[in-house]
């Protein structure tokens, strides 16, 4: 029973971690990139 649950839980946790990282990194990356973009355009 536990092993069957682990087969479901582990990928789910990994997926949630990836989504959380993506949501955290994307705004930071865009925020860090926007001053660089404005810098290059001027």
From TrEMBL:
Superkingdom: Bacteria
The protein's name in its UniProt record: Uncharacterized protein
């Amino acid at each position: 029973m536990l092993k069957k649950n682990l087969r479901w839980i582990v990928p789910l946790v990994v997926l949630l971690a990836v989504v959380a990282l993506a949501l955290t990194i994307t705004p930071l990356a865009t925020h860090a990139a926007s001053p660089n973009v404005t810098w290059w355009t001027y």
